[in-house]
Amino acid sequence: MNTTKPDTKSWRTLISAAELAAALGRDDLVVVDARSKLGDAATAEAAYRQAHIPGARYAHLERDLSAPEGTEAARQIDAGRHPWPQIDDFLAVLGRWGITPQTQVVVYDAGDGALAAARLWFLLRVLGHERVAVLDGGWECWQSLGLPVDSQVPAAAPGHYSASFDASRLLDAAQVQAHLDAGGLLFDARAHERFRGDVEPIDRLAGHVPGARNRPYALSMRDGRFRPAAELAVELSTLLGGRSAREAVVMCGSGVTACHLLLAMEHAGLEGGRLFKGSWSGWIGDPSRPIAKGD
After folding, report:
1. Which residues are the active-site residues?
2. Regarding the domain with residue range 167-283, which homologous superfamily does it belong to in the CATH classification?
3. Residue 27 and residue 43: Cα distance in Å, rounded?
């Protein structure tokens, strides 16, 4: 087994397929496959069982990265379609995967990191875990390079993790409204047509939170990979209007793809952005909340 530990200082946002391939077998590395398919989780998990990066554990979006349906957290009026998990449940998931505070985690999916690799990245970051990165280019890049795959489901040695989420980076609907009332920034990472309310293929109501600004997460990508950090830094700094990223809150439909924009911000050196946990599906959980349409 290769236990050499190369410099991993850059493995806190993105990692290339070549870097990950060279690191496979390291005793401090855990790879997680977070492929998901909206409304059809069984298909994504079946795809993992057929082929995945050697040694990868599987992260189920609804079961592992969200509060399961029927739980108290999921019953909250503004929880949204993918409720933020309870801390004890998430720590148990990490333990099952053999992840400890010293582990270098690498996560990938088949949706440019947006379904749901960036979600796991942000879950770990707000837990205080620094050594976590998303595979740039994801599963498609790995396959296109002819890198090794496996169908064996690994049996991980149980780990132990004791920590808590940084509540200051996680906002509910009431906190988002107070943030907006105080002149704060709220960015919606959904596609422009969903933000405008022209279409709504997923949630029961179309539109956006009044005062939110649209910045689709897909704009961070080029040819299936993240755009260069320096390029994104110029664009996102302009979007922030001179404010710190810590003053920005990001949302999407359910708090999943918003994490992709938070990852892009940190990749660009803009750290500390916050998440509206329930996002649009949580906002419309209360019919008394206002809805805006158009630009």
Report:
1. 252
2. Rhodanese-like domain (3.40.250.10)
3. 30
